[in-house]
Amino acid sequence: MSLTIRGSVRARRQPSCRGIFCRMVCLPRSIIGGFSRVMGRRNQYQPPNLQLQHPQLQQPQAAPEEWAFLASFEQQYGTTHPFFYACSFMQALKIAEDEHKFMFMYLHSPEYPSTSSFCSGNLCSELVVQFLDANFVCWGAFADRGEGLQMAATLLPASFPFCAVIAPATCNNIVVLQQMEGPIDPAELVEILQRTMEEQGSAFGSARGREEEQMRARIKEEERIRARAMEEEKLRADRQLREEQDAAYFAALQIDQEKEKLRNARAQKPEKHLGKSRQASSIREARFKETVGQGKDTQATQILIRFPSGERREHSFCCTDKILSIYIYIDSLGLPGIGNYRLISSFPRRVYGVDQMGITLKDSGLHPRASLFVELL
């Protein structure tokens, strides 16, 4: 029996490969350094629910050894397989951490006799494919080159095919939750993976649960602080609005009071001046009557004059007096607000303006009695 066969038989006889165990492993620097090579380019990977049908579409963005395993596997076993991330080990581990999943790592060694049956019977099985895609982030590599060789040297598998369930740990360490060596049927593989998730996932799940709980508590506290800040801001805004409204009200009230005082002062002032104005107007009117009445024809014409203020004045003119005499009489009154104006008769409506000032009262139809309105211009 060759060394390869003896290693395979020894793997089948090892009961520990089916048991649950947990060990901490420190990653070599060469593996850790691979993380920086693809850091920040996660968008180059397809989502887990898609199968990689054409590796050449993404091959220019990944290192050759990261595509060699996937291209070789699909060429030999087809495209039905778990979604293996074509990236570095550290990047796949980061993806698993972000998605809160364990990593399923497969190291491929074609020279072992059981490798072909494991790939076709397990990794191409619908049962295994669906279970792995739903619960794990899968990463595969050749065991004799690149990062696959480095992981093989770190984990020291006794036989192939070799699978391991890995979780991230602190610093540059990983936790190997389970490892399987040698041939295994699909149902047993799924059972071991399921048991590992249930038994080992509780510890990591509790840690993640605590982190999530702390994050939820922080978010809740931040929301409470924001709500309290918004409420305080609303109270300040309402208080400021009330103060502004009160200030505007008192300012308007003060303005109204000042206006009222001014109106009262003005109302008292015109009464004194109005009495004096009326007295002067009466004196001027009497003088005008005396002046105009001397030497005039005894045939008088009575003219009633209505002003815009509602005031009325009646005066007697001679029928031979001209329209100009009425304007002179109105101007002699010195009434306030009477500046530029013209005389109008109501019925029939007729305007006695500048063109008619030389016509006598008799010729203008105002004799012996007429009523005229003063219309301001």
Give a description of the structure:
- Residues 296-374 form the UBX domain.
- Pfam families: FAF1, UBX.
- This is Plant UBX domain-containing protein 10-like.
- The protein has 377 residues and is of the alpha+beta class.
- It has 2 domains: 3-203, Glutaredoxin (3-Layer(aba) Sandwich), CATH 3.40.30; 300-376, Phosphatidylinositol 3-kinase Catalytic Subunit, Chain A, domain 1 (Ubiquitin-like (UB roll)).
- It has 9 helices and 10 strands.
- It has helices at 3-13, 29-38, 64-77, 89-98, 113-123, 126-135, 146-155, 186-293, 323-333; strands at residues 23-26, 102-108, 136-142, 162-168, 173-181, 300-306, 312-318, 341-345, 350-352, 369-376.
- The strands form 2 sheets. The chain has a 5-stranded mixed β-sheet with strand order 1-5-4-2-3. Strands 7-6-10-8-9 form a 5-stranded mixed β-sheet.
Provide a brief overview of the structure.
The protein contains nine helices and ten strands.
Helices and strands in order:
Layout: H1 3-13, E1 23-26, H2 29-38, H3 64-77, H4 89-98, E2 102-108, H5 113-123, H6 126-135, E3 136-142, H7 146-155, E4 162-168, E5 173-181, H8 186-293, E6 300-306, E7 312-318, H9 323-333, E8 341-345, E9 350-352, E10 369-376
Parallel strand pairs: 2-3, 6-10
Antiparallel strand pairs: 1-5, 2-4, 4-5, 6-7, 8-9, 8-10
Keywords, separated by commas or semicolons:
single chain, 377 residues, alpha+beta, Glutaredoxin, Ubiquitin-like (UB roll), 2 domains, five-stranded mixed sheet, rod-shaped, disordered N terminus, Ubiquitin-like_domsf, UBX_dom
| CATH topology type of the largest domain | Glutaredoxin
Question: What does the radius of gyration come to?
Answer: 56 Å
Oligomer: single chain
CATH superfamily of the largest domain: Glutaredoxin
The biggest beta sheet, please?
A: 5 strands, mixed
The top-level CATH class of the largest domain is Alpha Beta
Q: Please, how many domains?
A: 2
Helix/strand structural class: alpha+beta
Q: Name the strands of the widest sheet in spatial order.
A: 1-5-4-2-3
Number of H- or I-type helical stretches:
9
Q: Give, in order, the helices and strands.
A: HEHHHEHHEHEEHEEHEEE
- Model regions low in confidence, pLDDT < 50 over at least 5 residues: 1-20, 35-62
CATH architecture type of the largest domain: 3-Layer(aba) Sandwich
- What's the rounded overall pLDDT mean? 78
Distance between the termini: 134 Å
GO molecular function: ubiquitin binding
Organism: Durio zibethinus
Keywords: Coiled coil, Ubl conjugation pathway
Domain UBX: 296-374
